[in-house]
Structure formats: structure tokens, C-alpha cells
Design goal:
seven-stranded mixed beta sheet; globular; binds S-adenosylmethionine; transferase; Class I SAM-dependent methyltransferase; SAM-dependent_MTases_sf; methyltransferase activity
């Protein structure tokens, strides 16, 4: 389950939106985009207490997720879009690659963080399996699909008709049109309840929180193979 055949169309968008990326996200989430990244990272530190040394930022983009880990660390940024990685000034190493086929050994990282990227996977289950294979813990914030049917319909309406127009306030037309693809994402991803079941096959969920009526979720999980 994931974007499957729609993946390539959505992927083109990341190349085009790179320059206005964070401004547009602020509008799309009504100002919450970074607050939710910070919350996820700080919840991890409250739970675990152990400082991660080797960190993998999956779908790192400009690095806005790893940025919030204040401790001493070595960060590898993995992303399939080179244009996004070019903007990344946070990582110590950058790797162009895909979630579903990570070029890393098992348990190579203490912590994997993924900010607003899991929803874009070709195959979400394969991505979660890989997250759990390569890292002891995972902290993920992503676009969700609300379990409640009415809320889901409202979100689909928002992503189809309101969001692209909002983004036009800060971006040229050809870029804000790319935000229409969030509608395709929401239509293709599993509901939040199904996602939890997928995660549980590979990891123990320590925290799962919904934001914006379920349009965004954040979770912290310990991989089943973690030492
Ligand atoms: C919306 S950006 C998120 C960037 C950053 N993590 C943040 O918190 O804002 C999503 C990123 O995930 C990357 N991505 C999408 N699907 C991917 C996949 N299957 N494997 C690796 N990276 C992927 C995209 O190229 C894009 O840079």
C-alpha cells in the first residue's frame, strides 16, 4: 500500500517545489509544520533518554527533521531527489536512494527520523520494514489519512480545492499546482488505523499521535530487532 504507480508523478513535484518548500508547508499546515517535527523529536528524547549517535534522516529533503536533534550526532541524509539533498546543510553524509531498498546494513543506525516523507513511499509497508531493519528506533511525522469518513472527505476537499490556492500566496502558479498532488497522496495512503497495524508487524509503537484531525500523524517506535 502506498503511492504505487502514482509515485513518479508525485516525485516530480519535490524537484520543482524545493525552493519554496518550507514557506508552502507553513501555509499548508496552517503554521504547524515545524512544531510537529519538534514535538516528535522532543517526545523521543523524553521517552528514551539515550542519545542517538548515528542518525538516518529518511526523505531528509533540506534536513528540517534532523535539525531538531540538538545532541552530538552523525547524520546521514537519504533522499531520492538530488535537488532536495543539495539544499541540505545539516547532514554529515548524503545518499541518493529509496526507502524501499535502503543501501544500509541492519541495525546500522541508532535512530531514524522521517519528516513528512513516509506518505510519499511507493510502498509504505516495505518502507516501514526497511526503517525497522536499519535503525533501532524511528521517529516519523507524516501526512495521514483520517479514520473518520467525514473528516477524510473534508481533508480530500481541502487538499483538492483549498490547499493549492493557499500555496499560490507564496509560490508561482506552476509550483502551487504541484501541491494538488497532496490530494493524490491522501487518496492512495492507508488510513491511520491500518498504518498502525502495518507498523506493529515490524516495531513496537511507543507513541502514536494524530494532529489536525488525523491529517498528520507522528509516531515513535522501537524496532522488533532492536538490541
Ligand atoms: C516533503 S519532503 C520532506 C523533507 C523533510 N524531511 C522535512 O521534514 O520537511 C519529502 C521528501 O521525501 C523524499 N522521498 C519521497 N519518496 C521517497 C522514497 N521512496 N525514498 C526516498 N525518499 C523519498 C522526497 O524526495 C522529498 O525530498
Amino acid at each position: 500500500m502506498g503511492l504505487g504507480g502514482n509515485w513518479r508523478t508525485v516525485q516530480e513535484a519535490y524537484r520543482k517545489i524545493a525552493v519554496v518548500y518550507e514557506k508552502a508547508n507553513m501555509l499548508a499546515t496552517l503554521g504547524n509544520v515545524d512544531r510537529w517535527r519538534k514535538e516528535a523529536i522532543s517526545l523521543y528524547f523524553k521517552l528514551d533518554g539515550k542519545t542517538p549517535i548515528k542518525v538516518l534522516d529518511a526523505g531528509a529533503g533540506p534536513g528540517n527533521m534532523a535539525l531538531h536533534i540538538k545532541a552530538e550526532k552523525y547524520v546521514v541524509a537519504l533522499d531520492v531527489t538530488p535537488e532536495m539533498l543539495l539544499l541540505n546543510t545539516v547532514a554529515d553524509d548524503k545518499v541518493v536512494g529509496m526507502f524501499e531498498y535502503m543501501p544500509f546494513r541492519a541495525k546500522g543506525f541508532d535512530l531514524l527520523v522521517a519528516g513528512y516523507s513516509l506518505h510519499a513511499a511507493v510502498d509504505i509497508e516495505k518502507a516501514v520494514a526497511e526503517f525497522s531493519r536499519v535503525a533501532g528506533y524511528q521517529v516519523v511525522v507524516s501526512i495521514g489519512n483520517p479514520d473518520n469518513v467525514v473528516v477524510r472527505k473534508l481533508l480530500l476537499f481541502y487538499t483538492k480545492y483549498v490547499l493549492p490556492r493557499l500555496v499560490c500566496i507564496v509560490a508561482p502558479k506552476e509550483i502551487c499546482n504541484e501541491y494538488k498532488k497532496i490530494y493524490t497522496i491522501v487518496k492512495s495512503i492507508p488510513t491511520n488505523a491500518i498504518l498502525r497495524e502495518i507498523i506493529k508487524k515490524y516495531a513496537t509503537i511507543l507513541v502514536f499521535k494524530e494532529k489536525g484531525l488525523g491529517s498528520v500523524y507522528l509516531y515513535i517506535a522501537r524496532s522488533l530487532n532492536a538490541s
